[in-house]
Design a protein that fits this description.
Elements: H1 7-15, E1 20-25, E2 32-37, E3 47-52, H2 56-64, E4 66-73, E5 79-92, H3 95-105, H4 108-122, E6 126-131, E7 135-140, H5 142-151
Helix pairs in contact: 3-4
Length: about 150
């Protein structure tokens, strides 16, 4: 039984609105910073994250020039996709991009409230990193779960 995902399947999974775990190497080359993050992705495109331009995440991403992100689905149908690659660009987060990210993860009413509550805090301080996925790791254990459920 194969647990692998095809290209289209893994890209579609990554494109779903899931909270990802960002990972980036620290200066010592031993430790890794790993934190949950909102992100945006469309099949065949780059992964985009937003963070404070003076954050630890931003400093480490600039220093290494790359980052990874992993998303998963818990439960008996455990699936995950992890990607890692070089940063292709960094730039300011536009109001439109910030709004799109909030609406990707939150229902409309809550997204509006979040955007209003954080507007001052975020004004001009966000930076967007784009990463081109170079390495993919993915697994889909749903067939095993279906097989086990069918045997019961």
């Amino acid at each position: 039984m194969s647990f692998s995902m095809g290209v289209a399947e893994r890209e579609a999974f990554l494109a779903e609105a899931r909270v990802g775990v960002l990972s980036v190497a620290q200066e010592d080359g031993v430790a890794t910073l790993a934190v949950p993050m909102w992100y945006a992705y469309a099949p065949g495109q780059e992964v985009v994250i937003h963070t404070h331009r003076e954050s630890r995440k931003a400093d480490l991403i600039r220093a290494t020039g790359r980052f990874g992100i992993c998303v998963h689905e818990d439960g008996p149908t455990f699936r995950y996709v992890g990607v890692e690659g070089p940063v292709t660009s960094e730039g300011p987060v536009s109001a439109e991009a910030r709004e799109a990210m909030a609406h990707r993860y939150l229902p409309p009413e809550l997204a509006r409230a979040y955007l209003e509550a954080s507007a001052e805090q975020q004004a001009g301080l966000g930076t967007a990193f784009r990463m081109r996925p170079a390495r993919w790791r993915a697994a889909d254990h749903s067939a095993l779960a279906a097989k086990v459920a069918g045997a019961m």
